[in-house]
Amino acid sequence: MTKILFVDDQENVLSALRRMLYGRRDKWEMEFASGGEEAIQRLEQKSFDVVVTDMRMPGIDGAELLSQARDRWPAVVRIVLSGQSEPDRILRSMGATHIYLTKPCDALRLTSVVSQSSILRNRLPDAAIKRIVSQMGAVPCQTSVFEQLVEELAQSFPCIDRLGTLIATDIGMTAKILQLVSSSFFGQPQRVNSPEQAASMLGVTLLRELVLSGNIFQPVDLSTIEGFSLEELNRHSREVAECARMIAQLETSDQRIVDDAWLAGMLHDIGKIVLACAMPSSYQEAVRLAEQEGMSLWAAEREVFGTSHAEVGSYLLSLWGLPTPICEAVGTFRSHRSYEVGSNFLPVTAVHVANVLRRKKLVPQEITKPMLASFFRY
């Protein structure tokens, strides 16, 4: 059973949560703490999978509680459920918060958020990797893209379109910006179709605050890992994303599926960045193993880590509250074998096919059904 600790200094709120979630008692083991101090005591006495806390509380508030949870119990999923939206409180809590929900929050939304993170969490067998993913706040990004972003923000009148375009070229930046709009950090959660749209929704003033003061992006240098290039990985991801979009447009008229195919294609390798940044020497071992044994990097990762970048990336995105079809596509695109015309089309199929085309060194300007059939015959 998933063990959840709910924290709020108002007893009527805790009582409402008990009533609202009564039907989940056969799947969730729930406890309720009346404030941050009591929550810390509960966490010291017992292990929990998820902490759901209010933000404004006397003594230890939500931001401080989640910061301590991140540092002392890093594998715990950390969720804010609050009616408070002061920008300074949100900025202070952002690095320690996975998902920000606003009150009132219905049972369906809360159940969906907790269940998705719990399901994908179970796909990672290694506790150390779970902790690494769970502790990630600022997201690694390409240094040259970050410098261009800061330069644009330093202008007297930064161009929001230019900012969005830059963010869309980097895997980490794309993931982080989607986290901010998929949760209620700054307004109601939104389902967006691109990083450019997400940047536009946040606006120049807030983006400047987040990038320069909130430190949501962390430029990294991974050149010490021989045979691994973040610049090349970003280029590959953009190519897969564009190819996945073309495939989805060919197979469905559902614009949401088309958009999710692009986003999943862009983010399908984000787990590589997580592993490479957190454990560079081990990732170097995986890269060398792949080269020496002639195996895929995906298979080499499994040899070294016991898991692959697909599961790692999927778990991170689920923790950040991204839509389920994107998380599932990122987690299963390598094992998705079939291409069936006429079946229910999902973003994972588009990403799988696009990645195969890229591995074959093919990035076509246009994709047709006969072209796809030539790659997937039975």
Automatic annotation (TrEMBL):
Coiled-coil residues: none
Post-translational modification 4-aspartylphosphate, affected residues: D54
Record Gene3D superfamilies: 3.40.50.2300, Hypothetical protein af1432
Protein's organism: Bremerella cremea
Keyword Phosphoprotein included in the entry's annotation: yes
HDOD domain ranges (all copies): 139-336
Keyword Metal-binding found: no
GO biological process assignments: phosphorelay signal transduction system
Protein name: HDOD domain-containing protein
Keywords: Phosphoprotein
Ranges where the Response regulatory domain occurs: 3-118
InterPro entries: CheY-like_superfamily, HD/PDEase_dom, HDOD, RNase_Y/CdgJ, Sig_transdc_resp-reg_receiver
